[in-house]
Amino acid sequence: MDLAAIIGTIGAFVVVVFGVATGNLGIGGLVYLWNAPSAVIVLGGTILATVGSNPLELTFPGLFKSIAKVFKSKSVPLIETLVIIVDVAKVARKNVLAIEDSLPSIDNEFLRNGLRLVVDRVDKELITDIMMSEMKYADQKKEIDMNVVKGMSTYSPAFGMIGTLIGLVMMLQDLTDPNSIGPNMAVALITTLYGSLLSNGIFLPWALSLDSARQSEKVLYEMVRDGILFIEKNERAEFIEQDLMNYLTPELKAKYEELKFSREKGK
């Protein structure tokens, strides 16, 4: 589970509740923030507009799958993958065919498929083309998820404004009772509140979270691709390690060095 996404989503509502509860009306003021028709217009309109703006097979039930991915763990095993690549490179330096024995234990499908191509003595240019195609396809799927959620952040404030305009039109139909204007205006504005909260507090952060995960995955794929091509060239494991460490942030480099030291010490 992605705790950051959970905390951010819950926190957006907590801030609103806290702001209302500490106001003049106290906790009872929350009653005035709920309006079922407004919720239907904003949330229902946003979902249907998102479904309608994409191919049906991508957004229904793909829409809910995209949202579910927001809350899945987005940790990218760069260090663990680098360790595997270096270990395999050491084996390949002695005997490339011996790599095949390591394949069943490798969970990363992209890395496993690449190493299988090396074992099968596939031409370097073909390996590059195959891996680039896999990278492109995987990135496109993540981009679709991100764009679906990002689209919701665009539609929700628009439907909030539509709901407000509907409320204003209905309110202006009868101005004979001045005491009803204030409450009716408040209800009309609730849809704008719903749209802004969903867009800036929920959907846009979700889209950015998916995009951040997408970028991290691209780094992992690029590191694996370079590692496979180095192994295909039968480069020394030390050289491969030094080059691929450039994909690590300073913090991850420090963790990798600690792991490397502990592994060497344990031998």
Structural features, described:
- With 267 residues, this protein is mainly alpha-helical.
- The radius of gyration is 26 Å and the shape is elongated.
- It has 10 helices and no strands.
Write a brief caption for the model.
With 267 residues, the protein is mainly α. It has helices at residues 3-21, 36-52, 56-59, 62-70, 78-94, 109-119, 124-172, 181-232, 237-244, 250-266. The chain starts with a helix and ends with a helix.
Task: Describe this protein with a few key phrases.
mainly alpha, 0% strand, 267 residues
> Count of DSSP helices?
10
Along the chain, the helix and strand elements come as HHHHHHHHHH
Inertia-based shape: elongated
The portion of residues assigned to helices is over 70%
Task: Give me the secondary-structure topology.
Elements: H1 3-21, H2 36-52, H3 56-59, H4 62-70, H5 78-94, H6 109-119, H7 124-172, H8 181-232, H9 237-244, H10 250-266
